[in-house]
Design goal:
The structure is a single chain. With 188 residues, the protein is of the alpha/beta class. The chain folds into two domains: 87 residues, HAD superfamily/HAD-like (Rossmann fold); 45 residues, no CATH class. Strands 3-2-1-4-5-6 form a six-stranded parallel sheet, sandwiched between helices. α1 links the parallel β1 and β2. α1 packs parallel to α6. The chain is globular and about 55 Å long. The structure holds magnesium ion and zinc ion.
Length: 188
């Protein structure tokens, strides 16, 4: 079995530019490349989990999205082990994506799918994101959760699954939390 770090894309791995798929406007967030190196060194799978309602809304295509992911990987100097995205939105205009689904965060569908596809033990895995919907999705899947408190969350609607296990300012600190926990497991 594998363990994974699930990571959100917009506002977390990269700076949030709403609905952007233009590679020239993609900018990694502080600590993203460091995160990839250290997380890989510790043997975690790196799994991108991202809501992409822009596909259902007709703002861009799945191919555009994949091009953007390739640009992100190039910038980070690392390749994700897998990429899961929710292309749906109930108010979208593009069939067959204009519907409710079980993959759009805060639902845990993408995590459960990844766990089967990549043989991931969810309780030994982590979710890092910049909003509480990311925390809820990760927690519903059984992962530990880290919130980047960087301005992405604006509503702060709390609930039983939405309290992050850790709150940090950036990906450097998120990586440090995970490494500390690994060390703790090794020596306890
Ligand atoms: Mg985000
Ligand atoms: Zn979906």
């Amino acid at each position: 079995m594998n363990r994974a770090i699930f990571i959100d894309k917009d506002g977390c791995f990269i700076k949030n530019v709403p609905y952007n798929v233009d590679p020239d406007r993609i900018e990694l967030n502080k600590g993203a490349a460091f995160f990839c190196k250290l997380i890989r060194a510790c043997g975690f799978k790196m799994v991108l989990v991202t809501n992409q309602p822009g596909i259902a809304l007709g703002y861009f295509s799945e191919a555009d999205f994949r091009t953007a992911v390739t640009a992100i990987e190039k910038a980070a100097g690392a390749v994700f082990d897998s990429v899961f995205y929710c292309p749906h939105h109930p108010e979208g205009s593009v069939a067959p994506f204009n519907k409710s689904c079980s993959c759009r965060k805060p639902s845990p569908g993408m995590f459960l799918e990844a766990a089967t596809a990549e043989q991931i033990r969810l309780k030994d895995s982590w979710m890092i994101g910049d909003i509480l919907d990311d925390m809820e999705a990760g927690k519903r899947a059984g992962c530990r959760t880290i919130l980047l408190d960087n301005g992405g969350e604006t509503e702060w609607k709390m609930g039983p699954y939405r309290m992050p296990d850790f709150v940090v300012p950036d990906l450097f600190e998120a990586t440090t939390i995970i490494l500390k926990n690994i060390a703790y497991e090794l020596f306890s």
